[in-house]
Each structure stands twice: as structure tokens, then as C-alpha cells.
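User: Sequence in, structure out. Go.
Assistant: Echoing your sequence, followed by the C-alpha cells.
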Amino acid sequence: QVQLVESGGGLVQAGGSLRLSCAASGSIFSINGMGWYRQAPGKQRELVATITSGGLTNYADSVKGRFAISRDNAKNTVYLQMNSLKPEDTAVYYCNAHIFPRGGSLYAYWGQGTQVTVSS
């Protein structure tokens, strides 16, 4: 069984920073792309940033220049460094990873979500 466990959310003032982490564990053969999504109250879940196994990144326009995604393949962990946070960044942030479990097929796993609240 594969799990994604997120950490690092919280309450921060506008202009501040937070770093989210997401560790994949369990019976993992390999991990392809990993990423972060967010969902604000009353809105659809949206992509924040993604990173391939080779380190290629992609960002939503709303976070370019402020957020940075990275990963540690040895630790099966993806990070999201969030700087210059704005109240509109307030949302539940979800980790996503495309994983080949041992003996299984590629599947998109999701974390449980971590709340990020930015006060003005």
C-alpha cells in the first residue's frame, strides 16, 4: 500500500513564507511526476506546480516567481517552498504523485491535504 503524507501547512501573514513537504511511503517501485494542487473554499482544485522525475518543473501563472517545487528522489519526497504569500493563496494544498507500486500499474495518489492560511 502506498501513502502520501503532507506536512508544513499553517497560518502565516501576507508576505511570509511556508515550506510544504510530502513524503511517499509503502510498496513503491518508482515515482514519475509529483506535484502540488490547491483548493480554496467554493472553488475547484487547481494545479500549483509539478515536477518530473528528471527535475523539469511547471507552475501556475499565479505562483510563478514566488513558489518553488523540488524533490528528493532518494527520500521519495516533494517540497513546495512558498514565498511572498498572499491572502489569495489560502487553500488546502494537496500532494499528488504518479507511482508504480511494486507489482502494480501506474496510479495517481493523493495526500490528505494540508491547510495554508494567509492573513492580510
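User: And one key feature?
Assistant: The chain has no helices and eleven strands.
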